Amino acid sequence: MIGTRGHDISDKGSAEELASRLELQEFESVQLVAYKSIKGVSEKAGYLTPGAAHKIGQAFKKHNIHIGLIGSYFNLLDEDVVEEGIARFKEYLKYGKELGGYLVGTETGSFMKNWTYHPDNHSEEAYQKVFKIFSELVGVAQNHGMCVGIEGAYHHSIGTPKQMKRLIDELDSTNVLAILDPYNFLCMENYENRNAIIQEAFELYGDKIAVFHAKDFVVKGDKLVQVPIGDGLMDYQFIKQMINEYRPGLDIIIEGQTDAGLKKSQKFLTNLLA
Hints:
The chain is 43% helix and 18% strand. Helix 4 crosses helix 5 (82-99). By secondary structure, it is of the alpha/beta class.
């Protein structure tokens, strides 16, 4: 099931407009960050009501768009935003079923406010802070029949597949799922080992992966730079093999591409998975 982020395909409009555009462009699913893609939805907690959430959800249902992930990303290690982030995340868990989703997700955060690398991100202190917050969120998810999605990234507090495996195991809940973004696990020091890192993730927690973030990249100078899928160094034949072996049928969400790049990426994945 191939989808994209709502805010990558459209400027803020109504839920009906967004769902219609997704259907017109033959996407099957969406990563819905409502406050980024639907006009009038606040990024602050307190906006959603059962009625407002239901109205949004019905628009996607009408156009046969599966909400693969409700995004409520916040920096778990930034003390200035964490309280508000937790409140909003809980609100999406509370009203997630009315929205038409089952999974609310976030990355794990950095001690840097702009989410970049900090030497303490991979410390035990960071892990324990993140574990405590996710434990609280998982409790709310259990009460509402929802799931918490966790996305690791090299520069963040959960920076490797092994760290993700530890967190999943210690949270020990059927209401915890993983969002796998292989590109996020890469850096200049390890990108040549990308297939091994991808395989490690599938081997360690493949049964927990619900969403796969599809990206591609090239190396420019000392940076990894995203390009349309199929134009870069990612081995998507290998990725297809891993998905088929460990988690067939998961949601594949194209990230970071718009307009022609998004269309090209969608066509590549559609042909690959045909």
